[in-house]
Structures are given as structure tokens and as C-alpha cells.
Amino acid sequence: MPWIENRFEEGLIVTSMDYFINWGRSNSLWPLSFGLACCAIEMMAVGGARFDIARFGSEKFSASPRQADLMIVAGTVNYKMAERVKRLYDQMPDPKYVIAMGACTVGGGPYFKYGYNVVKGVDLVVPVDVYVPGCPPRPEALLEGLMRLQDKIRKTSIARKTA
Question: pTM of the full predicted structure?
């Protein structure tokens, strides 16, 4: 197109707002520090130097749900704790995401059949975006789940759907 050549400065970048906003959202996920059982130890290991979650922009584990946009539910959720999980989820600002980490969180774990007090999956309490299986899952598995969540965020659109 010769009519458009030499009309813009060198180094001008043209992109969509969806791409730009989703890039920012996916590379600055701040998790809520919320561990319930043995999976929380593996979640804490991800913050260490060996696994370094900071390279994904998620190094700020927040103690307040109002400053977090990612909830990593790590461990066994019982019915007594389920209402607190839901309350914390509701206090998080939109857009908010959830990673279910561990076999007990995903489906009740070994307590599924005989544990009357165990929720049979945290997805019955809050909507889950990514499941990380294992008992307990390795820190590399949590990082893989974080990367899958980043992929999911990058594919979303912020534009309104017109009817």
C-alpha cells in the first residue's frame, strides 16, 4: 500500500486492545496466599528460588483477597471451610481466577468415599479455571497450571458480545 508508507514513525506498534490488556492480565497474576493442607507446602516451594514463580509475574502472594486476582486452593476443603473459601472468592475483584491444586481439592482425594465432612471437589463451591492433579502435585505441576491459566486469559476477549 504505497499511500500509507512513510506516514508513521519508526518503531510504531499496532496491536489490538484485547491482546494488550490480556498480556497485562496474564503476566501479573497475584495469588491469594491460601493453603489448607499438605499441598500448601508445595505451593510455598514455588515461591522459592529453585522454582521462581516471579518469572511469571506472580511473586506477590497477597494476604488480602481484595489485592489478589488468583486463588490457588491447595488442600482438602471440608464443609466448615467451604463457606470461608466462597467468602474469600466473593471478596476478590473481577476478573478472578481459581486453580484447584491437589487430588483432595479436585475430587475429595482419599476421603471421597468415607469422609462425610469433605467437599467432593472445590468446583462445587467456586468456579475452577485450571485443575492441577497429584497428591501432592510437584511445584512444576503448579507452574504448568499457571501457564495454562495464562493461555486461557490470553484467548479471552474483553469486547462486549452484540446480539
Answer: 0.82
